[in-house]
Every structure is written in C-alpha cells, then in structure tokens.
Amino acid sequence: MLLSLLLTLASNPNRSLSFLVPDSFVPWVHLPLAQQWRHGAQVRQALAVIPADASVAANTPLIPLLSHRQVLVRLPAWRHWQDSAAELTAVDWVAVDLQLPAWRAAAFDSDRRQVQRLQQRLEELRAEGYRTVREEGGVVVLRRS
Questions:
Q1: pLDDT tens digits, residue range 77-87?
Q2: Which of 34, 50, 54, 100 has its CA 20 to 30 A from that of 137?
C-alpha cells in the first residue's frame, strides 16, 4: 500500500496534487497552494456577476463551480444548448479561465493549444455580440447582448 501511495503521489493524477508535486521539472511548473487559493477566490468573484438562473458555457476548470445551474455547457466545444422543444439556443453567459492553462503552457503543448483555442473562441463570441462584463485573475466573463 505504501508503494501504491508513493506512485500515486509521484504521478500526480489529473494534476490534482500540483500543490505538492510539480507538474513539470524542466521547465519548473509548480502551483503552490496559496497561489491556487488566491486564484480560486478571484474566480469566485468573477463568477458572482452571473445570475443564478442564467445559461452558461464554461471551460473545464469552472464547471464544478457552476454545476448547480440548470443549463451549463462546456466551452470551447459548445456554446448552444437544446431546450425541451428541441430548439438550439445560445447561452446567455460565457466564463473562461485562461490563467490555469496559461500557468502550465510553458511545459505542456496541450495547455498552450488550449489557451489558443479559448482565446480564439472568445474573439468569435465577441464578434457574435457577447460583451465582456468582468475580467479578473485570468477569468473572462462575457454576456450575450
């Protein structure tokens, strides 16, 4: 059991133990617990502007914080949802955490590509009429006009 515990800690599954184990050594990518707590507080402040009954599209790190909503879709793949009448409807709000993948972009190509995709999606949404309501701590919140 001890060996299993050590291997689990060393492998850092889903990067959930980043405050203990660095995600990468060269380049050094380590997110201290205090930094993660500060970012979490900034995220919650940014998301506070979204009404409780609004439909939302968000990227993966924000999904747990918004999961109590009736309509929540994952960005960048989706920004529309299908109602009970089978009609496609654009979400009212969009929330994107660019900071979390940006921290890891120096070491991981997948995170670098994710940041680029999210920035591109934000530009597309702004061109479609979404406007920035709040931008704090790397979190961008847009509202459909």
A1: 777 888 777 88
A2: 54
Cα–Cα dist 141/58, whole Å: 9
**Is the Cα torsion angle 98, 101, 102, 105 positive or negative in sign?**
negative
Domain count, the chain: 1
Which amino acid belongs to residue 141?
V
3-state DSSP call for residue 53? coil
pTM of the model: 0.78
How many residues appear in the chain?
145
1 assigned to some structural domain? no
The answer to the question of residue 53 being in a domain is yes
Sign of CA dihedral 85, 124, 133, 119: positive
pLDDT in tens, 86-120: 888 889 999 999 988 888 888 878 888 989 999 99
- Which residue range(s) make up the domain with 122? 18-144
